[in-house]
Design brief:
Strand content: 25-35%
Number of helices: 5
Distance between the termini: 43 Å
Shape: globular
Number of strands: 14
Helix content: 10-25%
Largest sheet: 6 strands, antiparallel, barrel
Radius of gyration: 20 Å
Length: 267
């Protein structure tokens, strides 16, 4: 069932694959309305790649996973506010390999590709909740963003399991040279109730900082440090992080599950 919302976007509820002509008509309606919306907001329509209307249709809910191994960085070329949403357009060398509805982690935040104009750029949309919980609301034209495409089911897990759901932000409070590498210290507000549910770091555990899978050292109640090697400095936006910079933090999902299970065991 397809319903046109007040904002001009389309939402549909699917209970199985739409048969034959009904499915084609539904997808065509979605494509027309989607292009009308982005033309009104961005001044241009969203562009489909080869694959046609079928690239828009996915009756199953998406559940993507990342590994925290950043594929590259991109510069923001446009920031367009649209009521509570923000449409971010970025220039990336791999933009032509993307597709509409694809998931992409931006500084560790999972966002969906909504427009591909074919000029080496693409657009994603961040809602108000995402802007509030992450540093995406700080992005401006020229900002450097870490990017990672979602991991294939049979891919190598070179980092750790990353959901792309940022838990909080932290502030860089110190940078120390370490014989060619650097130690970055980050501090964040602690909520004891959330910490009891696994929203914390542990010594030598994993943490995601701006989408980068890192090993924790000097874990404390409100802070931790990570060591950044020259390669990571050169290939992520750690090269632009300084004292006072705000970064996205995602705590280890395994720790959250273990804390949750321990809570049930205590009952």
């Amino acid at each position: 069932m397809i319903v046109e919302t007040a904002e001009g976007m389309i939402a549909w509820e699917s209970r199985g694959v739409l048969p034959g002509e009904s499915r084609g008509a539904a997808l065509l309606f979605w494509e027309v309305k989607k292009n009308e919306y982005f033309r009104s907001v961005l001044g241009r329509p969203a562009v489909l790649q080869s694959g046609g209307l079928d690239t828009l249709y996915n009756p199953m809910p998406k559940k993507d996973m990342f590994s925290g191994i950043v594929e590259g960085t991109a510069r923001v070329v446009s920031v367009v506010a649209d009521e509570g949403n923000v449409h971010l357009t970025l220039q990336w060398d791999l933009a032509d390999e993307l597709r509409i509805d694809q998931s992409l982690a931006h500084n560790g935040v999972c966002l969906t590709v909504v427009a591909l104009p074919g000029d080496g750029t693409y657009t994603v949309t961040a809602i108000s909740e995402t802007l509030r919980r992450s540093n995406l609301g700080d992005l401006r034209e020229g900002s450097l963003v870490n990017l990672e495409r979602s991991m294939p089911v049979n891919g190598r897990l070179d980092g750790h399991i990353v959901q792309g759901h940022v838990d909080t932000t932290a502030v860089c409070t110190g940078i120390e040279d370490a014989d060619g590498s650097r130690y970055f210290k980050f501090e964040y507000d602690i909520d004891p109730a959330m910490a009891a549910r696994g929203y914390m770091t542990v010594e030598k555990g994993s943490v995601t900082v701006n989408g980068v899978s890192l090993t924790v050292c000097d874990s404390e109640a409100r802070s931790f440090r990570v060591a950044i090697i020259p390669y990571t400095m050169d290939h992520t936006n750690f090269c632009e992080i300084g004292v006072g910079s705000r970064v996205n933090i995602e705590f280890d999902i395994i720790g959250k599950y273990l804390a949750r299970l321990a809570g049930f065991a205590d009952r």
